[in-house]
Amino acid sequence: MFNLAGKLFPIGGPVTEEDIVDREAFITTLEMRLAGGQSIVLVGPRRTGKTSLAHEVLRRLKKRGFYTATVDCFRLSNRRDLAQSLINSCLENRTGMRRTLDVLKSHAKALADTAKLAVKLEDLQVSVDLFHIDLDEATVLNYALDLPETIATRDGKNMVVMFDEFQDISQIAGDDIYKKMRSYFQNHRRVSYLFLGSKEGMMKTLFGNRREAFYRFATIFSIPPIPQEAWIEYISRKFAEQNLAVEEEAIRQILEITQGHPYNTMLLCSEIYYILLETAKSTITPGIIKIGFDRAMLSLAPIYEVIIEELGHRPVIRQVLRSIARGSKVYTGKVNPNEIKRAIDYLIAKGIIEKTGRGTYRFIEPMFGEYVRRELL
């Protein structure tokens, strides 16, 4: 009997502790360092589990009594958005509300409704007037950047603040935002910071180049790969929860397709599971894996089409993609090596490929490589 409650293989967002595969030691390391006051940079391509890991670290810290706050830079439009997102997340530690500022604004005329809320925030000088649209944006941002330390000090707490897709913040707040943030954060004694980024090169430059404002502000960590044996144990256990016995060889076939990429693996297993549901089968066969793969590719095609469009129609970039997809040499005598180098650097910066050896590269997301083989070869 199949249990349809929830997703057996979660996709499309951060996962819970139960679905984080073989990351315990890494999570413990991050938790220990952040709890000790060290700031951390966590880098890795999109859809490889950064946000899930970060949320689990924050959950554990919160359970230990830490204040926590999160800001998703990918969702912001301007400096005011940045300020209000940080303020809301900090205030949630006191109010229990995700969007405290919206509540204050919507009940501004009904003071009795916000009396308890106002008392909770009185010592922080939080009022509707502070966030009025006519107020100087710089004033609001200055208040926001100092709020983590202010609220942590007032409440006798330690705090951890997470910025997701941190490398994108300059696109919405200007290149000078890094200097401004550093000027505040370096004076915070009760707050540590967790910076997430999907563009590894940009993040390592931001925190490793002496010319950058955040030089040596935080320790850089890359997400380690998940061992194949850990995937085998996890996938076997998940199917067993639904009374489905899966042969180890079938799981190895799945992992050969996905190369252990977290999102690709979860997606393919999810499609296989729903095929079993739809056909009332209880055994995973090579045919079912093939159908699951085709369905997974169909769901990914719109995403991959956008990626191809964003890469543009420059012949050299497409040639590099084709060469990697074929497993052939990237550098050829027909194209200027400098042009190929620029194309490779661009694809690495975009998080599409990574270097595996001298003159050799691979797609970070294996199923994107398959899409290239199908569409561009």
Task: Summarize the structure in words.
The strands form two sheets. Strands 2-3-4-1-5 form a five-stranded parallel sheet. A two-stranded antiparallel ribbon has the order 6-7. The protein is globular and about 65 Å long. Helix 1 (24-35) crosses helix 2 (50-63), helix 10 (228-240) packs across helix 11 (248-258) and helix 14 (315-326) crosses helix 16. Mean pLDDT is 89; it is low at 1-6. Strand 6 (353-357) and strand 7 form a beta hairpin. The chain is an alpha/beta fold and 377 residues long. It is built from 16 helices and seven strands.
Can you give me a brief rundown of this structure?
This protein is of the alpha/beta class. Helices cover 54% and strands 10% of the residues. The longest helix is centred in the last third of the chain and has 26 residues.
- Give the uncertain stretches in residue-range form: 1-6
Straight-line distance between termini:
44 Å
CATH class of the largest domain equals Alpha Beta
Percent helix range: 40-55%
What is the count of helical runs? Answer: 16
Determine the CATH topology of the largest domain.
Rossmann fold
Write the layout of secondary structure elements.
Blueprint: H1 24-35, E1 40-43, H2 50-63, E2 67-72, H3 79-95, H4 100-106, H5 115-121, H6 137-155, E3 159-164, H7 169-173, H8 177-185, E4 191-197, H9 200-208, E5 219-222, H10 228-240, H11 248-258, H12 262-279, H13 286-311, H14 315-326, H15 337-349, E6 353-357, E7 360-363, H16 366-376
Helix pairs in contact: 1-2, 3-6, 10-11, 11-12, 12-13, 14-16
